[in-house]
């Protein structure tokens, strides 16, 4: 068997071929996995969408795998610190990262030579959820529509600011797309996660923001901040009065964040397959669709059955890295 054929066989569904290729000791370890708690690193502070979705997933994976999945928040550097910790962890399946579109795709272009890990350092396990973003405004700003925001930005270029959960994340990239499409000049104010950013927005210390819907939803519902537009192709059922950016004049605008699970690259394929299978069961369930739907999020839909696999997620990540590299170049998104 050639090296390529051997590597390809390691990813066959169920990990059966992979198990046959492993030494007896490694096969036994894979079959016994998990025999102790699994640590899920969330590379952002508590309160953001990565944290919310990660904790929902951890609870359900614990039930499927028969071992606790313990959440550990480790934020910083746009999620790179936490993701890098997993990339450099022991490849035994006991440390995973709740990755985001930022840590798994956008950051490679945004951080460039400063990225502490590479795509090949992490193994794809599965996509958990897709999430639209919201264009937001503080009540103190007086902005009550996306059109009003554009008008204010054009009347005083550079004076309006917008907050995000950090450089390189989907909110940052989405707002840079908005800027490119509209020609406005507004100043980016990055934070170490959605929680700190939303606190500042509610207090009126920043004027506008872009954020994932789950973390911002309750603030909007309670009237603490205003939702000006949604970045998805269609309106969100939970916020039916909020127009899409396409409706606001940005034809065909469609951009959503996503979150999934990755492990260290050298994790044995049978373990990745076993974890991926458990994740697929979770995300294809009606209970998962209902639970994440309460946050205006959607199940992955990477497979014909509506679920996810390590192989499908790996292909998805590769395509997203290419897509967002182009956006980063066009929007000059760079941490150099």
Automatic annotation (TrEMBL):
Statement: the UniProt record of this protein carries the keyword Signal: yes
InterPro entries per record: BUG (IPR005064), Bug_dom1 (IPR042100), TAT_signal (IPR006311)
Protein name listed in UniProt: ABC transporter substrate-binding protein
Top-level taxon in the UniProt lineage: Bacteria
Query: Which family, according to the similarity comment?
Result: Belongs to the UPF0065 (bug) family.
* A Pfam family hit: TctC
Position of the signal peptide: 1-28
The alphabetized UniProt keywords are:
Signal
The organism of origin for this protein: Teichococcus rhizosphaerae
- Presence of keyword Zinc-finger: no
User: Could you tell me which Gene3D superfamilies the record lists for this protein?
Assistant: Bordetella uptake gene, domain 1, Periplasmic binding protein-like II
């Amino acid at each position: 068997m050639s090296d390529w054929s051997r590597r390809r066989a390691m990813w066959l569904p169920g990990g059966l071929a992979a198990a046959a290729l492993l030494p007896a000791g490694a096969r036994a370890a894979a079959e016994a996995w998990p025999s102790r708690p699994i640590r899920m690193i969330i590379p952002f502070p508590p309160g953001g969408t990565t944290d919310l979705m990660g904790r929902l997933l951890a609870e359900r994976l614990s039930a499927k795998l028969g071992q606790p999945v313990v959440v550990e928040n480790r934020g910083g550097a746009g999620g790179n610190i936490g993701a890098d910790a997993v990339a450099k962890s022991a490849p035994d399946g006991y440390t995973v990262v709740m990755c985001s579109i930022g840590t798994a795709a956008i950051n490679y272009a945004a951080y460039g030579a400063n990225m502490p890990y590479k795509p090949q350092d992490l193994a794809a396990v599965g996509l958990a959820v897709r999430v639209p973003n919201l264009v937001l405004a503080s009540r103190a700003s007086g902005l009550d529509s996306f059109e009003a925001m554009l008008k204010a930005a054009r009347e005083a270029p550079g004076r309006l600011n917008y907050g995000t959960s950090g450089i390189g994340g989907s909110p940052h990239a989405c707002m840079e797309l908005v800027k490119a499409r509209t020609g406005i000049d507004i100043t980016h104010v990055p934070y170490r996660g959605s929680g700190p950013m939303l606190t500042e927005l509610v207090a009126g210390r920043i004027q506008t923001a872009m954020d994932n819907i789950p973390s911002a939803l309750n603030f909007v519902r309670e009237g603490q901040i205003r939702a000006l537009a949604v970045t998805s192709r269609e309106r969100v059922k939970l916020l039916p009065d909020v127009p899409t950016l396409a409706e606001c004049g940005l034809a065909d605008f469609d951009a959503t964040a996503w979150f999934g699970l990755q492990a260290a690259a050298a994790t044995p394929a049978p373990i990745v397959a076993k974890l991926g299978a458990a994740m697929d069961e979770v995300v294809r369930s009606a209970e998962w669709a209902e639970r994440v739907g309460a946050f205006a999020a959607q199940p992955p839909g990477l497979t014909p059955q509506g679920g996810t696999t390590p192989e499908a997620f790996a292909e998805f990540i590769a395509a997203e890295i290419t897509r967002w590299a182009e956006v980063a170049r066009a929007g000059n998104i760079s941490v150099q």
